[in-house]
Design a protein that fits this description.
17% strand, alpha+beta, three-stranded antiparallel β-sheet
């Protein structure tokens, strides 16, 4: 991907992220995630109905990479079945960790395919949060 296009996508999603802001709704799964190495501290909420991700929201303080990755990931996962979302998340994490992955499956998330080592945790933060919520399906809901 062209480096100018990559920067533009990241900047646009940092400045105007999708679904930023939490809602008062007990039907959402909730989790907080943060980075030990920087300011990233984000709360995530996800609503699943009939095995389909209906909504994901987030808020908190984070760098451009974590914020933009959250926004792009939300767009990639809303409307997907849980199994489809898990496959996207697995491929995304493989990409960030420089393992084999399906580039076609990730769409715009491919902007993070050349992460500097010190920014990998920032890019992984939203996938960690969503995976944690998906792992809680069927268990008592997380509370922020």
């Amino acid at each position: 991907m062209d480096s100018n296009l990559r920067r533009e996508i990241i900047l646009d999603n940092y400045q105007e992220p999708m679904n930023r802001g939490l809602v008062e709704d007990d039907t959402y799964l909730k989790v907080n995630t943060n980075s030990e190495s920087c300011i990233d501290n984000l709360d995530f909420m996800m609503k699943i109905e009939n095995g389909i991700i209906k909504d994901i929201r987030f808020d908190g303080e984070a760098c451009a990479i974590s914020t933009s990755a959250s926004s792009i990931m939300i767009r990639a996962l809303i409307g997907k079945k849980v199994d489809e979302a898990k496959k996207i998340l697995e491929n995304y994490q493989n990409m960030i960790n420089e393992k084999d992955y399906d580039k076609e499956l990730l769409g715009e998330l491919n902007v993070y395919d050349e992460m500097q080592p010190n920014r990998k945790n920032c890019a992984l933060l939203p996938s960690v949060a969503v995976n944690k919520m998906l792992g809680e399906l069927g268990n008592e809901k997380n509370r922020i």
